[in-house]
Amino acid sequence: MKKESGVLAALGLEEWLETDTLERENEDAGDDSRLSSLRPPRPHSPFVIALVGGGGKTTLMNTIGRELAETDRRVLLTTSTHIALPETGNVLILDPERNRLEYLRREEPGERFFGGGGLEQAPALGDGNSSRRDLLAAGCTVPAGISGPVDDFPFLNVIPASGGFVFTAGALETPLPAGDKGDVLGSVPPQRKLTALPEPLYSRLKSLVDVAVVEADGAKRHPLKVPAAHEPVIWPDVSAVLGVAGLSALGRPVGETLFRRELSAWDGDQIVTAELIAELLSSPQGARKQVRSLEYRAVLNQCDTEEQLQAAKEIGAMLQSQGIHGAALSWGQPRWIF
């Protein structure tokens, strides 16, 4: 087994990023055209990583974001489908009904949100605004200060020009989840979701960061996933894909663990094996759907027991024989690299 390291090194992400940066620098250095100085500068284009499959993509996304921020990179975490409204961290939320943005920050679960730059805690809200009511219902308090129309939003007051910073951005899901009447004095409704940002706003945010990580697939909390015809949603700017599978599925029925099982040839009573997971992660109809020539790594998540570690080694050997590399992770930390 290779020496344990962070997820970035375990999955080869640092190597991808360094190669991408070097290629961009070489392109700039090789442009000796006399007209080059007269051309407008090329727009900043960050490295974009898409996460697909099941078994803990959001946790993996947050781990990657934190490690990238620790290397002094600015990181955007977002989705091309849906993600849960984060319980902690920096969050930039679009209210699509009013075309307004709210920047929120919460240090620990259960704390109220605060705005960036150490703003005062927001007072109790009673203005009847639907977006703010929804956020309160989700257990959040909207900060006083950093909010406003998208066209006039002070992005540079939130996202630093350099250094480490990670934030999640998305559009607030509308309408409200079933059963939520918007009454903040009643019972707490299901956790709100963030959906994909409009392309102009996504492009604006990308221009301010070094790396974007996009959750491009939903699995309804299942450890395994078969994509439907419209899935995953891989945007054209994606450079690399991480295919994720949860090892908690091992030894359990396919019907309990595989999201969209009906789209596969597997019977619901069939038991999940190492071979089945390897097939999901290597198949163009599974986690490698739409990967084409993009960089790809397999992630064996939820590798928490010795039995799961042994299965991970079996799966890793199967994938390696097909030229696929990756790592087994436990609670966001590498256990095995293949």
Layout of SSEs?
Layout: H1 7-10, H2 13-30, E1 47-53, H3 57-70, E2 74-79, E3 82-84, E4 89-95, E5 100-106, H4 130-137, E6 147-149, H5 155-158, E7 165-172, E8 193-195, H6 199-206, E9 211-215, E10 224-225, E11 240-246, H7 254-257, E12 258-259, H8 274-282, E13 295-301, H9 306-320, E14 326-330, E15 333-337
Parallel strand pairs: 1-9, 1-11, 2-7, 2-9, 4-7, 10-12, 11-13, 13-14
Antiparallel strand pairs: 3-8, 4-5, 5-6, 7-8, 14-15
Summarize the structure in short.
Helices cover 25% and strands 23% of the residues. With 338 residues, the chain is of the alpha/beta class.
Descriptive terms for the model:
alpha/beta; Rossmann fold; 2 domains; 13-stranded mixed beta sheet; 9 helices; 15 strands; 25% helix; 23% strand; globular
Rg from alpha-carbon coordinates: 21 Å
Mean pLDDT, nearest integer?
83
Order of helices and strands: HHEHEEEEHEHEEHEEEHEHEHEE
Number of helices: 9
Sequence stretches where pLDDT stays below 50 over 5 or more residues:
35-42, 111-133, 135-145, 180-189
User: Gap between N and C termini, in Å?
Assistant: 8 Å
Number of domains: 2
CATH architecture descriptor name of the largest domain: 3-Layer(aba) Sandwich
Q: Could you say which overall geometry the principal axes of the C-alpha atoms support?
A: globular
Helix content: 10-25%
- Regarding quaternary structure, what we see is single chain
Kindly describe this structure.
The protein is of the alpha/beta class and 338 residues long. Residues 35-42, 111-133, 135-145 and 180-189 have low confidence and may be disordered. The chain contains nine helices and 15 strands. A hairpin with a 4-residue loop joins strand 4 (89-95) and strand 5 (100-106). The strands form two sheets. Strands 1, 2, 3, 4, 5, 6, 7, 8, 9, 11, 13, 14 and 15 form a 13-stranded mixed beta sheet that branches. Helix 8 (274-282) crosses helix 9. The longest helix has 18 residues, at 13-30. The protein folds into two domains: 44-52 and 59-73 and 217-338, Rossmann fold; 82-195, no CATH class. The protein has helices at residues 7-10, 13-30, 57-70, 130-137, 155-158, 199-206, 254-257, 274-282, 306-320, and strands at 47-53, 74-79, 82-84, 89-95, 100-106, 147-149, 165-172, 193-195, 211-215, 224-225, 240-246, 258-259, 295-301, 326-330, 333-337.
